[in-house]
Amino acid sequence: MTSRYDEIAANLNAVIEEIKSATQSCGRKYEDITLVAVTKTFPVSDVHILASLGVHHYGENRDSDAAPKAAAVPGTWHFQGQIQSNKLKSIASWANVIHSLDEIRHIETLDRVATHRIGVFLQVSLDGAEGRGGALPSSLSALADAVLQSTHLDLMGLMAVAPLNVSSDHAFEKLAEIHGGFRASYPMATFLSAGMSNDFASAITHGATHIRVGSSILGSRPSPQ
Ligand SMILES: *Cc1c(COP(=O)(O)O)cnc(C)c1O
Asked: Which phi and psi angles does 75 have, rounded to 5°?
């Protein structure tokens, strides 16, 4: 029987090889990609395994699951889930980076409750609809201005999830275009968080600097999240 350690090590190696080949084929550097291992729903023992394998960026979607893991394992902890206002204070206590900000009121609340610096990505919707999937491109400058006016937040860049109904290449090409325009006004926003298990190679081709990979490393999750 393979141990959990061996299973995660083999999966991680395969992901790293795919990152290397994706960066090579578009003339980018492997070192420019930050791999965020999405540990949501997985036990803290898996996070310890990842740490021993040299992975120190972890991504979580739910505050209540993430807080005890982040307290147990040092590293860079990323929150990428849907934001509820009443959870922001707790999220701010353990998160180093938040990928899913898409409302001004959440940016203002986060800044008020934060006690350390937090890197933020603004989530942009790629399907033209506002709501669960991020802000419209036309709202980004107002959100960015709110981050720039904050005391504790650093504007890192944009984040997106490819919509289900279009090819990831098409979605990430559009994202790269939006990011290019955004950076013209906000030159500090150099990072791009895009790509999950099934589409991170495409995201890298289109400029992703942070990829958020869960199931390819840790296996399938018990319930969809
Ligand atoms: C769950 C999740 C991921 C990781 O998804 P996988 O398909 O398991 O790699 C990445 N980003 C977000 C926003 C997620 O919710």
From this structure: 160, -165
| Pocket mutation for ligand 1, best pick of 196, 210, 220 (most atoms within 8 Å of C-beta) | 196
Burial class (CB in 10 A: 0-12, 13-18, 19+), 211: buried
Tokens linked to 96: 């180093």
Q: pTM of the prediction?
A: 0.96
Distance 30 CA to ligand 1 centre (A): 21
The model's pLDDT over 55-66, given as tens digits with 9 standing for 90+, comes to 999 999 999 999
Distance in Å from the first CA to the final CA of the chain: 29
Asked: is 4-217 a CATH 3.20.20.10 domain? The reply is yes
Average pLDDT over residues 170-183: 98
* Residue 12 Cα to ligand 1 middle (Å): 15
